[in-house]
């Protein structure tokens, strides 16, 4: 009974926050409604027993993507009148995408109600009943798909280094820090103990 109440509560909030994300005129408010939708979707995943997906929704989507969207939207100078003008122009395309996504959802519901796919147990054996969702994914990821996982990490590392190299610029007129010169400097060269006469300043 409690699970059913929690499911309908989370689902209602997800639908409401998703609708407010689209209909909000202020982009900052849209991002905040999106964050609320992610949190409630994570609650739905916990009820379904998918702890790993719930954790990804909170850590990756809320903690990184949505916060990045929020900072970008708040830092950009957005012309709200121009945004409203472009809504009518792309309304037909958006409606076509919405209809296509709705059809896919109905097809997925029909396939799920029909019994789903019968997987070959030799290729993808089902985990044991007492093993948690996260542990089962970890065992499969670090055994059968270990090299694929390491290759994906290597690709991300190369992409990160490439982004740093592309954005790095050599600017003229900037005094760079010379660590070796700072470390090799002696204390007696850094300070001077002087006693100037009265009424006179210190010569630099």
How does this model look, in words?
This protein starts with a helix and ends in a 14-residue tail after the last helix. It has nine helices and no strands. 70% of the residues lie in helices and 0% in strands. The longest helix is centred in the first third of the chain and has 25 residues, at 51-75.
Q: Could you tell me the mean pLDDT?
A: 79
Write down the oligomeric state: single chain
Radius of gyration (CA) equals 29 Å
Strand content: under 5%
Note the gap between the termini: 81 Å
Count of helix runs: 9
SS elements, strand count: 0
Query: How much helix is in the residues?
Result: 55-70%
Shape estimate: elongated
* Largest pleated sheet: none
How would you spell out the order of helices and strands? HHHHHHHHH
Give the structural class.
Answer: mainly alpha
List unreliable stretches of 5+ residues. none
Summary of the model, kept short:
This protein is mainly alpha-helical.
Secondary structure layout plus pairing:
Blueprint: H1 2-23, H2 27-48, H3 51-75, H4 80-89, H5 91-113, H6 133-141, H7 146-167, H8 179-183, H9 187-190
């Amino acid at each position: 009974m409690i699970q059913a109440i929690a499911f309908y509560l989370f689902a209602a909030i997800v639908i409401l926050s998703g609708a407010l994300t689209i209909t909000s005129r202020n982009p900052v408010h849209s991002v905040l409604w999106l964050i609320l939708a992610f949190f409630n979707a994570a609650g739905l995943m916990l009820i379904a027993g998918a702890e790993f997906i719930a954790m990804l929704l909170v850590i990756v989507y809320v903690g990184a993507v949505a916060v990045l969207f929020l900072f970008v939207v708040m830092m950009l100078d957005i012309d709200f009148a121009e945004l409203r003008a472009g809504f009518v122009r792309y309304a037909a395309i958006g409606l076509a995408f919405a209809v296509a996504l709705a059809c896919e959802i109905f097809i997925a519901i029909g396939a799920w109600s029909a019994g789903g796919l019968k997987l070959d147990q030799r290729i993808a054996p089902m985990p044991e009943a007492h093993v948690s969702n996260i542990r089962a994914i970890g065992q499969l990821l670090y055994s059968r798909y270990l090299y694929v996982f390491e290759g994906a990490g290597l690709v991300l590392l190369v992409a990160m280094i490439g982004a740093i190299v592309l954005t790095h610029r050599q600017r003229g007129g900037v005094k760079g820090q010379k660590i070796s010169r700072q470390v090799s400097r002696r204390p007696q060269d850094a300070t001077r103990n002087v006693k100037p006469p009265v009424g006179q300043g210190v010569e630099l």
